[in-house]
Design goal:
single chain, 210 residues, alpha/beta, Rossmann fold, two-stranded antiparallel sheet
Length: 210
Protein backbone atom coordinates (compact mmCIF):
# COMPACT_ATOMS: atom_id res chain seq x y z
CA UNK A 1 0.00 0.00 0.00
CA UNK A 2 2.82 2.41 0.91
CA UNK A 3 4.68 1.46 -2.27
CA UNK A 4 1.59 2.23 -4.37
CA UNK A 5 1.23 5.68 -2.75
CA UNK A 6 4.87 6.44 -3.50
CA UNK A 7 4.36 5.47 -7.15
CA UNK A 8 1.30 7.74 -7.42
CA UNK A 9 3.24 10.64 -5.89
CA UNK A 10 6.13 10.14 -8.31
CA UNK A 11 3.71 10.02 -11.25
CA UNK A 12 2.04 13.20 -10.02
CA UNK A 13 5.36 15.01 -9.73
CA UNK A 14 6.35 13.90 -13.23
CA UNK A 15 3.07 15.22 -14.66
CA UNK A 16 3.59 18.56 -12.89
CA UNK A 17 7.12 18.82 -14.32
CA UNK A 18 5.96 17.93 -17.84
CA UNK A 19 3.06 20.40 -17.71
CA UNK A 20 5.08 23.29 -16.26
CA UNK A 21 6.13 26.19 -18.51
CA UNK A 22 9.62 25.92 -19.99
CA UNK A 23 10.17 29.70 -20.24
CA UNK A 24 12.45 29.48 -23.28
CA UNK A 25 13.31 32.87 -24.75
CA UNK A 26 12.14 34.00 -28.17
CA UNK A 27 13.55 37.52 -28.03
CA UNK A 28 14.86 37.33 -31.60
CA UNK A 29 11.44 36.73 -33.18
CA UNK A 30 11.67 39.91 -35.27
CA UNK A 31 14.87 38.83 -37.00
CA UNK A 32 13.54 35.28 -37.42
CA UNK A 33 10.41 36.60 -39.16
CA UNK A 34 12.46 38.95 -41.33
CA UNK A 35 14.74 36.12 -42.47
CA UNK A 36 11.75 33.88 -43.26
CA UNK A 37 10.09 36.64 -45.26
CA UNK A 38 13.23 37.25 -47.29
CA UNK A 39 14.00 33.57 -47.90
CA UNK A 40 14.44 32.29 -51.44
CA UNK A 41 11.13 30.41 -51.20
CA UNK A 42 9.19 33.70 -51.24
CA UNK A 43 11.36 35.57 -53.74
CA UNK A 44 9.50 37.00 -56.75
CA UNK A 45 6.11 35.87 -55.40
CA UNK A 46 4.59 39.29 -54.63
CA UNK A 47 4.07 38.31 -51.00
CA UNK A 48 1.13 39.64 -49.00
CA UNK A 49 0.74 39.83 -45.24
CA UNK A 50 -2.31 40.26 -43.04
CA UNK A 51 -2.31 41.75 -39.53
CA UNK A 52 -5.27 40.78 -37.33
CA UNK A 53 -6.63 43.31 -34.84
CA UNK A 54 -4.23 45.87 -36.27
CA UNK A 55 -5.83 49.07 -34.96
CA UNK A 56 -4.66 52.06 -36.98
CA UNK A 57 -1.18 50.63 -37.65
CA UNK A 58 -0.57 47.53 -39.77
CA UNK A 59 2.40 45.54 -38.56
CA UNK A 60 4.47 43.62 -41.11
CA UNK A 61 7.12 41.56 -39.27
CA UNK A 62 7.83 39.35 -42.30
CA UNK A 63 8.53 42.39 -44.52
CA UNK A 64 5.99 41.31 -47.14
CA UNK A 65 5.65 43.45 -50.26
CA UNK A 66 2.03 44.33 -49.41
CA UNK A 67 0.42 44.38 -45.98
CA UNK A 68 -3.27 44.47 -45.09
CA UNK A 69 -5.17 44.61 -41.83
CA UNK A 70 -8.44 43.64 -40.17
CA UNK A 71 -9.89 45.44 -37.19
CA UNK A 72 -13.14 45.83 -35.29
CA UNK A 73 -13.07 49.62 -35.51
CA UNK A 74 -14.93 51.24 -38.38
CA UNK A 75 -13.43 54.72 -37.98
CA UNK A 76 -10.12 53.92 -39.64
CA UNK A 77 -9.44 55.68 -42.92
CA UNK A 78 -6.80 53.26 -44.23
CA UNK A 79 -8.21 51.47 -47.31
CA UNK A 80 -5.92 48.51 -46.65
CA UNK A 81 -7.75 47.76 -43.38
CA UNK A 82 -11.04 45.88 -43.56
CA UNK A 83 -13.64 45.93 -40.80
CA UNK A 84 -14.75 42.68 -39.17
CA UNK A 85 -15.51 41.27 -35.75
CA UNK A 86 -13.34 38.17 -35.91
CA UNK A 87 -15.01 36.69 -32.85
CA UNK A 88 -18.19 36.19 -34.86
CA UNK A 89 -17.26 36.87 -38.50
CA UNK A 90 -14.80 35.26 -40.94
CA UNK A 91 -11.63 36.96 -42.09
CA UNK A 92 -12.86 39.12 -45.00
CA UNK A 93 -10.38 37.83 -47.57
CA UNK A 94 -10.38 34.94 -50.04
CA UNK A 95 -8.68 31.58 -49.60
CA UNK A 96 -4.87 31.36 -49.65
CA UNK A 97 -4.36 35.10 -50.11
CA UNK A 98 -1.47 35.57 -47.72
CA UNK A 99 2.03 34.26 -47.23
CA UNK A 100 2.04 35.63 -43.68
CA UNK A 101 -0.53 36.44 -41.00
CA UNK A 102 0.23 38.09 -37.66
CA UNK A 103 -1.71 38.81 -34.47
CA UNK A 104 -0.24 41.18 -31.90
CA UNK A 105 -2.08 41.55 -28.58
CA UNK A 106 -5.20 40.22 -30.26
CA UNK A 107 -6.11 36.57 -29.69
CA UNK A 108 -6.42 37.11 -25.93
CA UNK A 109 -9.56 39.13 -26.79
CA UNK A 110 -11.18 36.32 -28.83
CA UNK A 111 -13.62 34.26 -26.72
CA UNK A 112 -13.19 30.54 -26.47
CA UNK A 113 -16.91 29.78 -26.18
CA UNK A 114 -20.08 31.68 -27.11
CA UNK A 115 -23.67 30.54 -26.94
CA UNK A 116 -26.57 31.88 -28.95
CA UNK A 117 -30.18 30.96 -29.55
CA UNK A 118 -31.35 29.42 -32.80
CA UNK A 119 -35.07 28.91 -32.77
CA UNK A 120 -35.90 26.98 -29.63
CA UNK A 121 -32.37 25.65 -29.02
CA UNK A 122 -29.05 27.03 -27.84
CA UNK A 123 -26.03 26.77 -30.11
CA UNK A 124 -22.47 26.65 -28.84
CA UNK A 125 -19.72 28.33 -30.85
CA UNK A 126 -15.96 28.19 -30.47
CA UNK A 127 -14.71 31.56 -31.80
CA UNK A 128 -11.00 30.88 -31.17
CA UNK A 129 -11.20 27.54 -32.99
CA UNK A 130 -13.07 29.25 -35.83
CA UNK A 131 -10.45 32.00 -36.00
CA UNK A 132 -7.65 29.46 -36.34
CA UNK A 133 -9.62 27.76 -39.12
CA UNK A 134 -9.86 31.15 -40.83
CA UNK A 135 -6.13 31.79 -40.44
CA UNK A 136 -5.41 28.39 -41.98
CA UNK A 137 -7.86 29.08 -44.83
CA UNK A 138 -6.36 32.46 -45.72
CA UNK A 139 -2.74 31.34 -45.58
CA UNK A 140 -0.99 30.04 -48.66
CA UNK A 141 0.62 26.58 -48.45
CA UNK A 142 3.75 26.83 -46.27
CA UNK A 143 2.56 30.23 -45.02
CA UNK A 144 3.37 31.44 -41.51
CA UNK A 145 1.25 32.68 -38.62
CA UNK A 146 2.85 34.72 -35.82
CA UNK A 147 1.07 35.28 -32.51
CA UNK A 148 2.26 37.59 -29.74
CA UNK A 149 0.01 37.49 -26.70
CA UNK A 150 0.20 38.00 -22.93
CA UNK A 151 0.76 34.47 -21.69
CA UNK A 152 -0.26 32.33 -18.76
CA UNK A 153 0.86 32.09 -15.95
CA UNK A 154 1.82 35.79 -15.88
CA UNK A 155 -0.70 38.18 -14.31
CA UNK A 156 -0.75 40.35 -17.45
CA UNK A 157 -2.89 37.64 -19.03
CA UNK A 158 -5.63 38.16 -16.41
CA UNK A 159 -5.36 41.80 -15.30
CA UNK A 160 -7.10 43.30 -18.33
CA UNK A 161 -10.84 42.52 -18.02
CA UNK A 162 -11.14 42.27 -21.82
CA UNK A 163 -8.71 39.33 -21.89
CA UNK A 164 -10.94 36.27 -22.24
CA UNK A 165 -8.59 33.81 -23.94
CA UNK A 166 -5.61 32.78 -21.83
CA UNK A 167 -2.85 31.16 -23.87
CA UNK A 168 -0.06 28.99 -22.49
CA UNK A 169 2.82 27.03 -23.97
CA UNK A 170 0.60 24.04 -24.75
CA UNK A 171 -2.39 25.74 -26.40
CA UNK A 172 -1.08 25.75 -29.97
CA UNK A 173 0.89 22.53 -29.54
CA UNK A 174 -2.05 20.49 -28.26
CA UNK A 175 -4.91 21.94 -30.29
CA UNK A 176 -3.60 23.23 -33.63
CA UNK A 177 -0.58 21.12 -34.58
CA UNK A 178 -2.30 18.02 -35.89
CA UNK A 179 -3.31 16.39 -32.61
CA UNK A 180 -6.89 15.15 -32.26
CA UNK A 181 -7.81 17.53 -29.42
CA UNK A 182 -8.42 20.50 -31.72
CA UNK A 183 -10.23 18.43 -34.33
CA UNK A 184 -12.65 17.28 -31.63
CA UNK A 185 -13.82 20.89 -31.32
CA UNK A 186 -13.91 21.61 -35.04
CA UNK A 187 -10.39 22.63 -36.06
CA UNK A 188 -10.00 21.53 -39.68
CA UNK A 189 -6.43 22.47 -40.54
CA UNK A 190 -2.96 21.68 -39.31
CA UNK A 191 0.03 23.78 -38.31
CA UNK A 192 3.61 22.95 -37.51
CA UNK A 193 4.94 24.74 -34.44
CA UNK A 194 8.16 26.17 -35.87
CA UNK A 195 9.24 27.91 -32.70
CA UNK A 196 7.75 29.19 -29.47
CA UNK A 197 9.09 31.10 -26.51
CA UNK A 198 8.86 34.16 -24.34
CA UNK A 199 9.64 37.82 -24.72
CA UNK A 200 9.24 38.96 -21.15
CA UNK A 201 5.64 38.16 -20.19
CA UNK A 202 4.55 37.73 -23.80
CA UNK A 203 4.31 34.32 -25.45
CA UNK A 204 5.54 34.34 -29.05
CA UNK A 205 4.38 31.47 -31.27
CA UNK A 206 5.41 30.92 -34.88
CA UNK A 207 3.30 28.42 -36.84
CA UNK A 208 3.62 27.09 -40.38
CA UNK A 209 0.65 25.92 -42.41
CA UNK A 210 0.92 22.24 -43.27
Amino acid sequence: MIFKKIIYKIRGLLKVCIDSPQYKDFNDWQSVCSVLGESSFWKNKNTKALDLGCGDRIQNPFKAEKAYGVDLRNDLSNSLIKVANLSTQPIPFANEQFAFISAFDFIEHVPRILTGSSGSSLDTFFPFINLMNEVHRCLQPNGYFLSRTPGYPFSISFTDPTHVNHIDEYTFVNYFSGMLLGKTYGFKGEFEVVRQGWEGRYLITLLKKV
